[in-house]
Each structure stands twice: as structure tokens, then as C-alpha cells.
Write a structure and sequence with these properties.
- The chain is α/β, with parallel strands linked by helices.
- It folds into three domains: 132 residues, Nucleoside Triphosphate Pyrophosphohydrolase, CATH 3.90.79; 103 residues, Four Helix Bundle (Hemerythrin (Met), subunit A) (Up-down Bundle); 159 residues, Rossmann fold.
- The strands form three sheets. Strands 1, 2, 3, 4, 5, 6, 7 and 8 form an eight-stranded mixed β-sheet that branches.
- Pfam families: IF-2B, NUDIX.
- This is NUDIX domain-containing protein.
- InterPro entries: IF-2B-related, IF_2B-like_C, NagB/RpiA_transferase-like, NUDIX_hydrolase-like_dom_sf, NUDIX_hydrolase_dom.
Length: 460
């Protein structure tokens, strides 16, 4: 049963057998920063013509039901979507219907935008989530849709705690946090009036918290700084609309830069390749290149390399190996090129990336194998110093012995072990990185003190 507002369950239906509320699931599907909204057709019982997410009655386990609804209402199977998170249920009463709803929200990432509509919807659009609260938008939404979205939307806390995704991915999430808040402030103007100065102060504070969230990720800082800088000198008079426009443009620009860097790298990939960790940009480059074989280090303790190996298995021959075997693989298998991503590129051309990158690059340099670092230029840091994050000690050892544990998440690869940087601007050598760092420093001047912060990750 998919129609969460239809008549087939009856008013006050006890769908879970525990109360008189109707429990439903709502899935928000995200693709490259945009959200899927679907317009309810005349085939449903209520909220006809209004826009919502993928939804349906929670018959049994909501975690299972939501996947069924996605497949039924969009045609997207389990290989096309991946869950990001679920959120606390939203309970509200619709007095017109005389019904209490309990909405279980979910956020999924979708691999593609093409979907197959069921009869319950007659149109769909991929839009910024802020369209839900835009008083000028054409999409009238079902009740409490924005409230449900906020339960699963990215936050400063979720960005600080995310140890599964790379820097480029998290930089987009940071821009989404700013975008969503700016969009909400714009939407609230119709009720509370405009307060440009107050809006700017609130968004500037949020931006500073985002800058602090992941201190090792220069790309996050640069992209947040660019959005705030491009809000313009008149941002204090324009307020939230200026930041909303800048973040929407920033997301598009960031996605294009990552795509272009991957496309440039793909043109250079042929023969056998060695890599490690999980970089979305590198993965796209390998998928679109022509490698004869890819050697992938497992990238313990999180095992990101295993995910990369599985993702590439249908495209080309893949060999997965232990991290300790990196030098052995370089010596015995003699790959034609090492291709890695970067969390941060320091002004001198050295590279901060997943632990093990340094070992791989030094071994390749010694063997005369070129090392290509694939990254958008937004990953160049404006600072000489580096803040290296550490992972959970229990991921390495959780036994009873009194053992000190080191679990560094990142290491630093010397610039002289890097052959080239493959970027959206083309191929750069390490000596050109300093000039880019100077450009990016100009973006930091939006802050009142003219200097970006670098504190511990915020947990708010």
C-alpha cells in the first residue's frame, strides 16, 4: 500500500496495531545536491496536486517498507539508491482529515535522476530542498514536509562525525547546510519580515562552525569561504537571499570541478593502475578511463578499498591486496601509474590523504612509476600547517591488554613524490600549487577578522 494519504486504510487506521495514528514512511532522494519531489495524482485519496517525497504506509518494519516504496514509486532498485540516514518521526494532526500522522523520514542518495513514475504521481522534479519553504515556488507541498526533511538533512554535527566519505563529498554537504538555512530564512521573510543584518550574522556564524567541522579538509573551507565571499560586499544588506544564491551556485561549481578533474584523469588512465582509499573523483576517473587492471589496497581499518574494488569489478580486472603489501605490489606487479585522491594539498605541493598514500607514493617514486593526484584545485590549502585527524582506537584494537593504539586517518606525502596534479584546470606540477593557494586566500576575507578559523570540530 503506497498511498499514505489515501482512503484505503480508513480514517484513524491502526496500521501498526499500537495506536490510532497512521504511520507512514517518507524518503527524500538526493542526487548531486538536488532533491526529488513528486506531485500526487488524482489516483490518490488526499493531498492531490501537492508535492512530497516517496511515501507509503509503514506496514511492519519502516526500514524495509521505505525501500519497497522507492522501488514501487520510482523504479529505482537497491543498486541505484543507498541510505544516508533515518530521522526521528514527525507526528502531527491534520484537523481537516481528522487524522494523526506519524512520518518516519529517510534520506537516500540516488545514482541517477531518471525514474519511472507510478500512477500515484503525475510529475516529478529535482530541485533544491529550499523549494519546500519558498513562498514563491510553484510546488505546494504536503504538510510538514520540510520538518521531515530537517530530521535527515546534513548538519554540522553529521559532517564532523562522518568517517565514511571523502573531502569533496563532505564539502558539498557543508554547502547544503548553508543553503538550507539560508533558504529557510528567505522563506520566513513572508511571515517575520526581512532582517538582512541578522540573517547575515546567523549565516556567518553557521559558516564559521562549518569551517571548524573538519580541520584537515581544505576543500570544505575553500568552498564555504567562496560561497560567503561571493555573497558579495552587500551581503549584510541583502542577507539570506545573497547566501542562498551563492551556495546554490557553489554546489553547481563544485560538482562541475570534480567532474572535470575526473574527466581529465580518465584521459590519462591506461595500462595497470594502483590506488587506495575511496575518492569519488578517482573512482569516476577509473570507471571512465581504460585501465587494464587496478590494484587496490584494502585501506584499513575502515576498508574503503574494498568498496572501490567492488565498484570496479564489473568494469575491469581488479586485484585487492592488504595495505602491508603496497610496496610488494609496486615492486612485483609494476603498475604503469599510481592514481590517488587528496583530502588536502598543501601550498608546497605535499598531499594529505588517507593513511598509506605516503607509503604507496614513496614506493612508486623509488620504482620510477608516475604518481598522479586527482583533485579539484579547491583542495589546495591556504595554510602551511596540517591538522591530521585520528580514528577510533577500537577499530585497531579493542582487547583487554594495556596497549597504546595509533590510528592515524591521514598522512602526508612529500611533494617530490608527486609527479602531477590532475585538476579541472588541467595538469599542474607541484610548483604551481603555491599560486593557487594565494588565490584561495583571497576568499577568506569575508570574515570580520579577515582570517579563517581552525579550531576543534563543532559538535552542535
Amino acid at each position: 500500500m503506497s498511498d499514505p494519504a489515501g482512503t484505503d486504510a480508513g480514517d484513524g487506521a491502526d496500521v501498526n496495531g499500537t495506536d490510532d495514528a497512521a504511520h507512514v514512511v517518507t524518503a527524500f532522494l538526493r542526487h548531486r545536491g538536488a532533491m526529488l519531489l513528486l506531485r500526487r495524482s488524482d489516483a490518490v485519496g488526499t493531498y492531490r496536486g501537492q508535492w512530497g517525497g516517496v511515501s507509503g504506509f509503514a506496514e511492519g518494519d519502516p526500514d524495509e517498507q521505505v525501500r519497497f516504496e522507492i522501488r514501487e514509486e520510482t523504479g529505482l532498485g537497491p543498486d541505484a539508491v543507498s541510505i544516508v540516514r533515518s530521522g526521528r518521526p514527525v507526528e502531527f494532526e491534520d484537523s481537516d482529515l481528522g487524522r494523526t500522522w506519524v512520518v518516519h523520514p529517510y534520506l537516500f542518495d540516488s545514482e541517477r535522476r531518471e525514474i519511472e513514475l507510478s500512477e500515484e504521481h503525475d510529475a516529478y522534479e529535482w530541485v533544491s530542498p529550499t523549494a519546500m519553504v519558498d513562498p514563491d515556488a510553484d510546488q505546494e507541498t504536503v504538510p510538514k514536509l520540510w520538518t521531515a526533511y530537517e530530521r535527515v538533512a546534513p548538519t554540522v554535527r553529521s559532517i564532523a562525525a562522518d568517517d565514511e566519505h571523502g573531502a569533496a563529498f563532505l564539502s558539498i554537504r557543508a554547502l547544503e547546510v548553508l543553503r538550507d538555512r539560508a533558504g529557510l530564512l528567505v522563506g520566513e521573510r513572508s511571515e517575520f519580515g526581512a532582517d538582512p543584518e541578522g540573517e547575515w550574522a546567523e549565516l556567518a556564524e553557521l559558516a564559521r562552525r562549518l569551517l571548524e567541522a573538519r580541520p584537515s579538509m581544505a576543500v570544505l573551507r575553500n568552498r564555504v569561504n567562496r560561497a560567503m565571499a561571493e555573497a558579495g560586499d552587500d551581503a549584510e544588506s541583502a542577507g539570506a537571499p545573497a547566501v542562498l544564491d551563492a551556495t546554490l551556485a557553489g554546489i553547481d561549481r563544485a560538482l562541475a570541478a570534480d567532474d572535470d578533474a575526473a574527466a581529465t584523469a580518465a584521459d590519462r588512465i591506461e595500462g595497470s593502475v594502483a590506488t587506495l582509499s575511496r575518492s569519488g573523483t578517482v573512482l569516476d576517473a577509473l570507471r571512465n578511463g581504460a585501465p587494464s587492471r587496478v590494484f587496490v589496497a584494502e585501506s584499513r581499518p575502515a576498508g574503503e578499498g574494498v568498496d572501490v574494488a567492488e565498484a570496479l569489478a564489473d568494469d575491469c580486472p581488479v586485484t585487492l591486496h592488504t595495505d602491508a603489501a603496497v610496496a610488494h605490489v609496486i615492486d612485483r606487479e609494476e603498475p604503469d601509474r599510481v592514481v590517488v585522491g587528496a583530502d588536502t594539498i598543501l601550498p608546497d605541493g605535499s598531499v594529505v590523504n588517507k593513511t598509506g598514500t605516503r607509503t604507496l607514493a614513496i614506493a612508486a617514486d623509488r620504482a620510477g612509476i608516475p604518481v598522479s593526484v586527482v583533485a579539484a584545485t579547491d583542495k589546495v590549502s591556504t595554510r602551511e600547517e596540517v591538522n591530521l585527524e585520528s580514528g577510533d582506537r577500537q577499530a585497531v584494537y579493542d582487547g583487554p591488554a594495556a596497549i597504546d593504539v595509533l590510528n592515524p586517518t591521514f598522512d602526508v606525502t612529500p611533494a617530490d613524490c608527486v609527479t602531477e596534479f590532475v585538476t579541472e584546470r588541467g595538469i599542474l606540477d607541484p610548483g604551481e600549487i603555491g599560486t593557487i593557494a594565494e588565490e584561495l586566500r583571497e576568499l577568506e576575507t569575508w570574515q570580520s577578522d579577515g582570517e579563517a578559523t581552525d579550531a576543534n570540530p563543532s559538535t552542535r
